[in-house]
Design a protein that fits this description.
The complex is a heterodimer of chains A (398) and B (105). Helices cover 23% and strands 30% of the residues of chain A. Chain A is an alpha/beta fold. Chain A folds into three domains: 169 residues, FAD/NAD(P)-binding domain, CATH 3.50.50; 123 residues, FAD/NAD(P)-binding domain (3-Layer(bba) Sandwich); 78 residues, Enolase-like, domain 1, CATH 3.30.390. In chain A, the strands form seven sheets. A five-stranded parallel beta sheet of chain A has the order 3-2-1-7-19, with helices on one face. Chain B is mainly beta and 105 residues long. Chain B has one domain: Rieske [2Fe-2S] iron-sulphur domain (Rieske Iron-sulfur Protein). In chain B, strands 5-6-7-8 form a four-stranded antiparallel beta sheet, with no helix packed on it. Chain B has a three-stranded antiparallel beta sheet with strand order 1-10-9, with no helix packed on it. Chain B has a three-stranded antiparallel beta sheet with strand order 2-3-4, with no helix packed on it. In chain B, a hairpin with a 2-residue loop joins strand 9 and strand 10. The chains are: A alpha/beta (398), B mainly beta (105). The interface between A and B is medium-sized, with 13 and 12 residues.
Chain lengths: 398, 105
C-alpha cells in the first residue's frame, strides 16, 4: 500500500492517520478537511470551549508540527467533491490518487426550516466556526432559547445557565432525551436542569422565529411565544454520505469497516456498521475515534472484526453522564440508586441480557458497567438493583 | 528519608488496588501491580478525572471516564484519548509504609 486518502479530518480521520503511522505505514498519507482550521476536537465546543475554559489551541487534535513529523499531507478548506475508483477530487480542482481511502466525512446538522429561521442570533453548533459565533453570542445575549433537548442542546443550556443567562429549552417530546433514555433517567435530567434554573418546555413544536433582522422571540404551534435574543438549534444530524451516493442513511460497512466500493473504508458518524445483529449508525465521539483507528489497522491487514461497544459521555453542570452500549427506551429498565440524586444507573435489559447502561455520578462503576454491557451479561435484576452487590465483582463473574 | 512523604500503609493497598494521595503538593496515584508499588500522577491528563476510580489492566491504569490508559511503569499514554503522559514518582516501601519521593520523569 503506497497511498492513502482520508476524507474528513475530525476525530475519526485524525485517529486513522495517526494509527496508520503508528502501525508502520510508510506511504503517502493525505488528510482532507472541508474546514479551514487545523483539525480540532468537537466535544469541548459545547463544554469547556463554550464556557471559555479551553482555548482553540487546547482543543487541537494534533499540533501543526505533528502533521509534518508524521508526514501527513493536510488539505484544509478543501471539501472532497467527487470520489471515483482510486481518486478523489477536491474543491479547487486537485485530484488525489489513492490505493485505499477512508470516508470519515461525519455528519451535518439538520436545519429547522421555519419562518424566521435565518434571522441573526440563531445558531447551530457543529463546527469551531459555529462555536466561536455562539461563544460571542453567549457573551452578549441575555435570554437564550435552546431548541431541542438532546445531549448537545442540554450541554449548551447548562453552559448558558453557568454564564448567568436566562435559559429556555424547547423539547418536542415529553422529556429531554426521551428518544434514547427511559423515563426515570430522562426525568432526572429534566429535574437537574430545572434545579439550575432552566425553563424547560416539553411537547414544544417551534413554528417560527420572529424579530427585526435579529431574533426577538420564538413561536410555538400552540400559540405560546417566548422572548429571546439568541437561539441555538440542536435537532439532530444527517450523515455526509453523498460521496458514495448515500441516501441519508449513512454508508453501510462490513465488520471490517469496508464499504461496497473497492478499497474504500468508512468510519465515524457516516458509517453504518454491524452491531449485535443490527446495522447501526451512532454519532458518538468514541465510536468515531475507535472506528477510525480500527479502519487504519484493517487497511494494514488486521483481520479482527470491529466489535467495540458504543460509549458516550455528557457533562452538564457538575454532573457527568455516561452511556454504554446501545439500548432502546422500550427495553426493560432496572435502576440502581436514585435518579433524583444524580447518582444512579439505569440498566437496559433485552431478553434478560444487559444491552446498555446509563449512569451518573458513579465513576467507580464505569469500567465494570462497560464490561457487563460488552458481555451482554444476564444477571438477576435484584442484584443489579441492590447497592450491596458489587458491580466490579459481577462483571468479573465473581 | 528526606524528600519522601509517608502516604499509606502497605496493607491498605492489596494487589490490584489503587489509591490517590497527596504528596509534595501533588495528587499521586499509588498502585499495587502484582505486589509491586508504583506511583504516577493521579489526575487524568485528558479531563482531570481521578484515576483512582479506574482499574489496573495489563500494567496500566485505565481512566474510568474515557478509558485512557497510562503505563504504571513509565506514565506514558498507552491508549487515548489522553495525549500527555503522567508524571512518575519515586516510591519506597519501608516498615510497612509507602513513601512517595521526588518526581522521576
Amino acid at each position: 500500500m503506497r497511498s492513502v486518502a482520508i476524507i474528513g479530518a475530525s476525530v475519526a480521520g485524525v485517529a486513522a492517520a495517526k494509527a496508520l503511522r503508528a502501525g508502520g505505514y510508510d506511504g503517502d498519507l493525505h488528510l482532507i478537511s472541508a474546514e479551514q482550521e487545523l483539525p480540532y476536537d468537537r466535544p469541548p465546543l459545547s463544554k469547556g470551549y463554550l464556557l471559555g475554559q479551553q482555548s482553540e489551541d487546547d482543543i487541537l487534535l494534533a499540533r501543526r508540527e505533528d502533521y509534518a513529523e508524521l508526514r501527513i499531507h493536510l488539505h484544509l478548506g478543501a471539501p472532497a467533491q467527487v470520489l471515483e475508483r482510486g481518486a478523489v477530487w477536491l474543491a479547487g480542482g486537485e485530484r488525489i490518487r489513492f490505493e485505499r481511502a477512508l470516508l470519515a466525512t461525519g455528519s451535518r446538522l439538520r436545519r429547522l426550516d421555519v419562518p424566521g429561521g435565518d434571522l441573526s442570533g440563531i445558531h447551530y453548533l457543529r463546527t469551531l466556526q459555529d462555536a466561536r459565533a455562539l461563544r460571542a453570542a453567549l457573551g452578549e445575549a441575555e435570554r437564550i432559547a435552546v431548541v431541542g433537548g438532546g445531549f448537545i442542546g442540554l450541554e449548551v443550556a447548562a453552559a448558558a445557565r453557568q454564564s448567568g443567562k436566562e435559559t429556555l429549552v424547547l423539547e418536542a417530546m415529553q422529556a429531554p432525551l426521551r428518544r434514547v433514555l427511559p423515563p426515570q433517567a430522562a426525568r432526572a435530567i429534566a429535574a437537574l436542569h430545572e434545579r439550575h434554573g432552566v425553563h424547560l418546555v416539553v411537547q414544544a413544536q417551534v413554528v417560527a422565529f420572529e424579530g427585526d433582522g435579529h431574533v426577538r422571540s420564538v413561536l410555538l404551534a400552540n400559540g405560546s411565544r417566548f422572548p429571546c435574543d439568541a437561539a441555538v438549534i440542536g435537532v439532530g444530524a444527517l450523515p455526509n454520505d453523498g460521496l458514495l451516493g448515500g441516501n441519508g442513511q449513512g454508508v453501510l460497512v462490513d465488520k471490517h469497516l469496508r464499504t461496497a466500493a473497492e478499497g474504500i473504508y468508512a468510519a465515524g458518524d457516516v458509517a453504518r456498521f454491524p452491531y449485535r445483529g443490527m446495522a447501526v449508525r451512532i454519532e458518538h465521539w468514541d465510536i468515531a475515534r475507535a472506528t477510525g483507528e480500527y479502519a487504519a489497522r484493517a487497511m494494514l491487514g488486521d483481520t479482527a472484526p470491529y466489535d467495540a461497544s458504543p460509549f458516550l459521555w455528557s457533562d452538564q453542570y457538575d454532573v457527568t453522564f455516561q452511556y454504554f452500549g446501545h439500548g432502546d427506551p422500550s427495553d426493560d429498565i432496572v435502576v440502581r440508586g436514585d435518579p433524583a440524586t444524580q447518582n444512579f444507573i439505569a440498566f437496559f435489559l433485552r431478553e434478560g441480557a444487559i444491552a446498555a447502561a446509563f449512569t451518573a455520578g458513579r465513576p467507580r462503576d464505569a469500567l465494570p458497567l462497560r464490561r457487563l454491557v460488552d458481555q451482554a451479561a444476564v444477571i438477576d435484576p435484584r442484584a443489579l438493583q441492590s447497592e450491596d452487590v458489587s458491580l466490579r465483582r459481577l462483571s468479573r463473574g465473581e | 528519608m528526606e524528600g519522601y512523604t509517608d502516604v499509606l500503609s502497605a496493607q491498605a493497598l492489596p494487589p490490584g488496588a489503587l489509591q490517590s494521595v497527596h504528596a509534595g503538593g501533588e495528587l499521586v496515584l499509588i498502585a499495587n501491580l502484582d505486589g509491586e508499588i508504583h506511583a504516577i500522577g493521579a489526575t487524568c491528563t485528558h479531563e482531570q478525572e481521578d484515576l483512582a476510580d479506574g482499574e489496573i489492566e495489563d500494567g496500566c491504569v485505565v481512566c474510568p471516564m474515557h478509558f485512557a490508559r497510562f503505563s504504571l511503569e513509565t506514565g506514558d499514554v498507552i491508549e487515548g484519548p489522553a495525549t500527555k503522559p503522567e508524571p512518575v514518582y519515586d516510591v519506597r516501601v519501608e516498615g510497612g509504609r509507602i513513601f512517595v519521593g521526588p518526581r522521576r520523569r
